[in-house]
Structures are given as structure tokens and as C-alpha cells.
Amino acid sequence: MTGLRILLIEDDAELAELTQEYLRGFDHQVSHEADGSQAVQRILDEQPDLVLLDIMLPGKNGIDICREVREHYRNPIIMLTARSDQIDQIIGLEIGADDYICKPVEPRLLVARINAISRRIQRDNHTPAADESLLQVQGLQINSNAREASHNGQQLSLSTQEYDLLHLLARNAGKVLSREYIFHEVRGLEYDGMSRFVDITISRLRHKIGDDPHQPERIKTVRNRGYLLAT
Question: I need a surface site. Which of 19, 118, 146, 168 has the fewest CB within 10 A?
Fold first, then answer.
């Protein structure tokens, strides 16, 4: 598995050094930034394959950093925090974070999450044939070669996992997909029965395509079964 270019944004110098050393043992290239006020520019300039982003930082916190870069940085962001409050997880996912790990981080868990993302990136880098690269479902158009989506001619600004989830729904338009299946396909992990990732990401997609959250017509909830993209 090809290593990733990872930017670690963490103000705890000892933890940062240990994390860098551990991840480099798995062939990842890891750079480090300790100052939150410098993080936005580094993310946008370097465009790493993955950002590990602490929430509590000097200068600017991780929530604000994630919010500011999301429109122009489309690769995965994993948020790290000492907090266990579910509100932080919901906020992180709502502003476009791809994953959320509470500190102290178990190293094997962190590597497992990164490897899942790496597998997904390698899968997505496979270039489909021209006649397979464009999906159109009513007003939605998804270009899998460019990893771009538009709705009624307007390009959508999507995070990595928003795009992956929308692409998954479009590939299976008219078919009900369970939360467990969506979670596994998009995250590369088994569903733990607790995560609200799928529901939050669906909510964000509905907002971006103008689907009424109370009576959605495009991305529909099928009670006790999952979600489908209407055709």
C-alpha cells in the first residue's frame, strides 16, 4: 500500500514526534505544524493526501481550520481531540471532517483508519472507461474521473466523503442502501452501530442539492432500511 503525504497539526511536541515516528514506520510521509494560525495556509499550499487535525490548538482551533479549508481542500481530514463530547463529533462532521478520533489515540486504531482511507484513495485513482466515468441522475451529474459533481449545472463543493457517498448513491440510484453498507463502502470500516456519520453526511448532501430535509424528494430515507437516491 502506497504511503500517504500526511500533515499532522498538533501542538503537543512529544505526541507529535511519537505520532510522526510511528506513521513513518508504515511508509507515510509526515510533516508537522504546531501553530493553528499557520495551519490553514499550509493545508492549502501543500494539499497533503491527509490531514490529522487536533481541535485544541494555539492561534486557531481545529474546528475553525476545518471550516476555512473545506471549500478548497477536498482530501480527507481526521480530527483528533481529547474531548469525548458527542457534540464535538457532530460539529466536526457537519463542517466536513471525514473522521474523528478521541485522544489518547491508540496507534493501531489510527493506522487502521489511515489505511482504510489509503485503500479508498487507491480505489478512486482507478480511472474508469469514458462511458463509465459520467453518472447522470435527473439534475445530478457526477464525473468520477475528475471527482466532481454538479446539480442543475452548478458545481457542488463536496468533501471527500460527501462526494464518495453521493457517488455511491448515484451508482445505485433507485436502490435502498443500508447504513451499514454505506458506512463500510465510504469509510472502509465496519459500522459500530453508534456513529452518526451517515445521517450527518446525508443531511449535508441534501442541503447542498436543495433537497427539503423534512420531505426529501431526491435522497430519501426508507424507514428501518436505509437511504436511496430517487430516479
Answer: 146
Q: Given the DSSP bridges, would you call strands 77-81 and 99-102 parallel, antiparallel or unpaired? A: parallel
Helices (H), 70-154: 86-94, 107-124
**What cell numbers appear for 87 in the block?**
457534540
Amino acid at 22: Y
User: Which tens digits make up the pLDDT trace of 94-119?
Assistant: 777 888 888 888 898 899 888 887 77
Q: How many residues does the chain have?
A: 231
Confidence bin at 69 (pLDDT 50/70/90): very high
Task: Label the pairing between strands 226-229 and 219-222.
Answer: antiparallel
What's the one-letter identity of residue 63? I
| Mean pLDDT for all residues in the chain | 87
DSSP-assigned beta bridge partners for residue 222: 226
Cα 100 to the chain's mean position, in Å? 10
Between CA 98 and CA 102 the distance in angstroms is 14
Q: Which residues lie below 8 Å from residue 74, measured CB to CB, with a gap of 6+?
A: 147, 158, 159, 160, 163
* Among 116, 105, 44, CA closest to 79: 105
